[in-house]
Amino acid sequence: MAASSAGMRTVVCNFNRQITIYHPRINTQNAYNNVCIRGLCTSTPRYQSQPQIKKKSAVRELVGVVGLEIHAQIHSSTKLFSGSQVGFFAPPNSQVSFFDASLPGTLPALNRRCVEAAVMTGLALDCTINRKSLFDRKHYFYADLPPISTQRRELPSLSSDVGEPPTDGIGADPKAAGYQITQQRVPIAVGGTLRYGHLIGRKQGQVVAKSVRIKQIQLEQDSGKSLHDDSRSQTLIDLNRAGVALMELVMEPDMSCGEEAAAAVRELQLILQALGTCQGNMAEGQLRVDANVSVHRPGDPLGVRTEVKNINSARFLARAIDYEIERQMELLATGGTVQNETRAFDYKSGQTIPMRDKEGLQDYRFMPEPNLPPLIVYDSETAPPPAGEDPGQVVLIDAVRKSIPELPSARRARLVNTFGILPEHSYTLVSEDGLTDYFEGVARETRAPPKKAIGWVMKDVLGLLKQQGLSVSQSPISPRALAELLDLLEAGRVSSSAAKMVLQELWKGTGRSPAQVVEDLDLGLVDDSTEIQRICLSVINSHPEEVRASRSGNRKVVNKLVGLVQKQTKGRADPVRIRAILEEGQQGSVVAGEPCGTGLEQELEREREREQELEQEQEREQGAGSREQEQELEQGAGTGAGAGSRSRSRSREQAHWCRGCAFVFGGELVISAFGEVPLGP
């Protein structure tokens, strides 16, 4: 054994790679920072190139079959069978107890918190909780796990709470004991269902309900971490993760593509986060996914599967599965065979690459764990604990069931039923941490309808948060402030464009209220009808080409004219009001006008009554006419006080700002009661 540098101990393994154990008390930081982690955990050479798979496979009759195995790190301050602390950013090998290092004579002590987390997760997924579950040993023989009986290795430093380590002993690698404690025969939960929504369509605007069966949930230990330095042919070992509690969720092969699998993982991530049983941070390895992928013809037995290991992103999961399905289809189309192997996903190339042959159950050599008794959980009603049992060591299923919070599916249903929002909007609200509470806070405080509030929350506030990389809790605009801004908009005190400007000012975090910002920047809505009509007249007369295009049916040109008016009013005029004036004014040139008086309003009502009487009389004479006849009646000219009203169906709100306007028609000044004057020659 030779020391490669200060603070390191190096051994040469039987596959011609080095394993380096760091000692944090001896100059480890510099050496640790110099590690170049490239490549994968493999003892065989990496494939440098892979054939590019065509996206459109010729084997159309084959379909993909996908099952998942998900390892969720339980949110607990200590490990599954030891008192060592859990911390992602801790120095290497600084959170390792004697048991984690597999010292002879150490025994496991089960963490009660981890059992409760597994029971709660099983209940949330409609699983059956086994009152009695068993622990097993699962043996590994990987390239980074040399036979411990033939090799001596230096121990890492151990946690300070268990004292100083001995100077010599059996060694430390990712699984120093040569086995992992898990639950193979009788897991803690079986037979559940994960229901999730799959967004489809061009803009993923349609939600399709899906479900996948949960085969089992089992408790098990995590392994240590191998950090590979290909440039120096070294593998660095960190045992901080060894012994951390995991829930392994095994899903049946009920999915057919990468997007379905990614949607299922995202839903599970939300459920675990809502329960508090797993933080679900995939970047820190708290949620790792193995995908089992095969292809077959519908009705035939399932094909040979490959396993794609340790994918830590839902997006990468979808890419890896879709690539693997296409690869297997192309392989079968060219006369090849699919190998039962373990593969890894290279996110840079978007390809899966071989790692090793897939192990079978006989390779794991499962055997009962002799140092742990059966795990017993109780139910106060059906299976109460025996008398004299220590309450601190008892897990009650009914007590855990009562503590389950609102799950994402229930929250989405409540949002849709309570506020009338679209289902796809509810998915966005629930998927963003804290966004549901933010929206509900706005909806409770504002007088604006929820459908308007959801637009501002999802498009404006969430858009600004995404641009600046902030979480919802870091938003400088509180729900109360946004609700006040929506109230100003709803009351007609500001225009929509001015409200956007107010939102930008509020984002600066000056502490001013929306009303103060409106006053300081003079963004209040212009109420002077004469002034707005004067500006509309100016825009219409100065843009004859746009007016002609609008008359020929190009409705998009009206948006440009509205924008020009808004520019002159600095966003202080109501765009709906502007549009109504412009659409009416394009029949002539607006020169003056005010909202109509009471007499003209009464004349309008009398005109509508006469049209209704005429329509009823003709219906009695002709019976149920066709739709074309009804449209002709609606467009027929009545004997109103104005010149040529063409539609009785115009709403009062639309006509209000047009009636009483003066138009130049045929060289004469004509007053229109209903706002639409036919063009003269």
Provide the fold topology.
Layout: E1 8-12, E2 18-22, H1 28-33, E3 63-73, H2 112-124, E4 128-129, E5 132-133, E6 136-139, E7 179-182, E8 189-200, E9 206-221, E10 225-229, E11 234-238, E12 245-251, H3 258-275, E13 287-296, E14 306-311, H4 314-333, E15 341-346, E16 351-357, H5 361-364, E17 367-368, E18 375-376, H6 397-402, H7 408-419, H8 423-431, H9 435-445, H10 450-468, H11 479-490, H12 496-507, H13 514-520, H14 529-542, H15 544-551, H16 556-568, H17 575-585, E19 590-593, H18 598-622, H19 627-635, H20 652-655, E20 661-665, E21 668-671
Parallel strand pairs: 2-11, 14-15
Antiparallel strand pairs: 1-2, 3-12, 3-13, 4-8, 5-18, 6-7, 6-17, 8-9, 9-12, 10-11, 13-14, 15-16, 19-20, 20-21
Region (Disordered): 590-651
Enzyme class: ligase
Function: Allows the formation of correctly charged Gln-tRNA(Gln) through the transamidation of misacylated Glu-tRNA(Gln) in the mitochondria. The reaction takes place in the presence of glutamine and ATP through an activated gamma-phospho-Glu-tRNA(Gln).
What report would you give on this structure?
Helix content is 34%, strand content 18%. The protein has 20 helices and 21 strands. The longest helix is centred in the last third of the chain and has 25 residues, at 598-622. Mean pLDDT is 76; it is low at 1-51, 53-58, 143-173, 588-608 and 619-681.
- Main beta-sheet strand count, sense and barrel state: 9 strands, mixed
Low-confidence stretches: 1-51, 53-58, 143-173, 588-608, 619-681
Q: Helical residue percent?
A: 25-40%
Mean pLDDT score: 76
Shape: elongated
Overall domain count:
3
Rg to the nearest angstrom?
A: 35 Å
Instruction: Trace the largest sheet across and list its strands.
Output: 4-8-9-12-3-13-14-15-16
Class computed from helices, strands and strand pairing: alpha+beta
Q: Termini separation (Å)?
A: 104 Å
